[in-house]
Every structure is written in C-alpha cells, then in structure tokens.
C-alpha cells in the first residue's frame, strides 16, 4: 500500500494541479460543480458508489461509499469550495517550488481531495475490505457555514463510530482535536433622521445607539477563557449632515464549549434589548451556526489510534486546538469521536499569495489515512 501511493506521487500532483486550476468559490456554482463532476468521475472509475445531491444555488454535494448497500462506520468530510473569486485560478495558477505546491485553495483544501481519492485507490488495489467501511461527504458550502450541507452531514453521521474531517494538517504533523464554536449575529438599529444643522434636536441617532452597543459587545470578550466577540463590520447613516436613521453591525463570536455559547448568546440579546438612546429600536438576527468541537474521552482514544498509526509510519503526530470552525463541529456535537486536520500539511490558507501544501506530506498523509481506515476497520 505504501509503495503504491509513493509511486503515484506524480499522478497525484497532476490531479492537484487540475483541481487548483478550477475556480470553486462558494458562490460560483458552475465552478464548484466542475470540481464535483471531476471527483465523481474519478471515484466511479474505481468502482465506488457516488450519489449527487443537487443544489439550486450552491454547488452540488457528493456522497460516496464503497457500494450502495455498504453500511460504513467511518465518516469522512471534505469541502470543495474556496474563498477565492472567479478568475483567481487564471490569475494565479498552480505552481510547484521545491516540495511545495502553491495556488488558490491548494491547502484549503484541494490537496485533501487528492488524498482521499488515492487512499481509496490504495485500499482497492490491496483488496482491503476497509474500502466498504468509509462514507465520504464532499460538500460545497463549508466556507459560508455549510447551510445546505449540514443536514446531509448530520444524516450521514447517524450510526457512525468515527469521524475523520480532512481539513489541512497543521505544521509538524499536527491534527486538530478541538475547535471553537462559531457564531454570526447581525444587529440593526433604527433611529430618526433630521437635518444636523437646522433641527438636530428632533433626530435620533442610530449610530450613537450602536456605538454604545459596540462598546458593550467588546466588553464581553474573555480571551483567557477562549471567548472572543468581534464587531467586524459597521455601517450607517445617509449623509454627513443628516442625523443617522439607521446603523448596522456584524458580529463574529467564538467559544470553546456549549455553556459559553449559551451564555454569550444570552448576553448579546441583552445588549440588543438595552436602549441607550431614547427613541431607538434594535433588531438582532443570527445564531451560533457551528457548535464547538469539544475534546472528549472517546475522541482522545481516536487520537491515540491516529498517533500510533503515524508512529508506525515514522510520523510524530501531535494534537492542536484552533479558533477556526469546520464541519467537524457537526459530528462532534452528535457525540461521534472526531479528529480534524487529518489532511496534507500546509500553511497560510485563504492567503492571496502564500498558501501552500507540502507535497511530501500529501504522500505521507495519504498513506496515514489509508492505514488509519484499515486499523479502525479491524
């Protein structure tokens, strides 16, 4: 199995180039569907069952199993969408410098697509029954919250014993065992417009009200406990000489556990309900879209298996936690032992210039994934 994958290195890089040079922004349905069609073709070529879940606005999702009838116990999740706009691949195409591959989405997470395919190829080549113990979801909207794919992921998670989320690996052979929960809230304030020079006293400033609320929101931060609230965008007013009748803020929230998520949500609603400037009205929308991926005793046991498998391959696997969200949150919230960041190693995801994947790790992590699937199956 190891030699098979090592001998496919050039072939794997060729496929990676093809994927990276295909734009697949979350809102570019045509581009994402090109990626999903390419992957569908490649998995069907090795005899796996592929079901296409068609979407009207976002790209289509793929659900892949060894056979239609197989009842796998391992769920794997990867996303096909990227954050880069249409045309980015033409402007900045795939390139290789030394042992590093560069290009839009190469690390987050098109190298993972190649990894999963060639791990499956290796299992099939070795006639391993473990290929029938894997249920793969390629979704199209992870970068924008997995709104349409969350039900598919949760349905696929039913009855699973393990979840392997193939986000990019972390430097020095890291995998992810904890992730923060992610929330997004929109706060909209209404006031009353008036001429700021002629009769400002009859106006009610929505911006003034929002300014009080922003200060209160920022005071909710507790970095030592892993809680962060960031008012990242604000907008308001109609002209400089008009008392602003409206103002809006977008709020990003990160938490480590479910209790924090509940408490922060309550606190944000309280800020919205408080009136600092008489005559204003505030509306709040949004929620904690992704629950935290909390480390459990069972996920620790799964990490131990990953670490032991890596050790057999000469890899020194270690665990890390991160503030970024991923689809791992959905399976972890269902109580399924979950490991994230099992993909090839790289850095600077979402960067317009520096994002890369280590091609040596593409091979190593593909071997690790195939071996891990076999071990979990046994």
UniProtKB/TrEMBL annotation:
Which positions are catalytic residues? 81, 142
Kindly state which keywords UniProt assigns to this record, in alphabetical order.
Hydrolase, Metal-binding, Zinc
* Residue ranges of domain Peptidase M20 dimerisation in the record: 177-278
Q: Name one Pfam family in it.
A: M20_dimer
Q: Which cofactor does it need?
A: Zn(2+)
Molecular function (GO) terms for this protein are: hydrolase activity; metal ion binding
Its recorded name reads Acetylornithine deacetylase/Succinyl-diaminopimelate desuccinylase
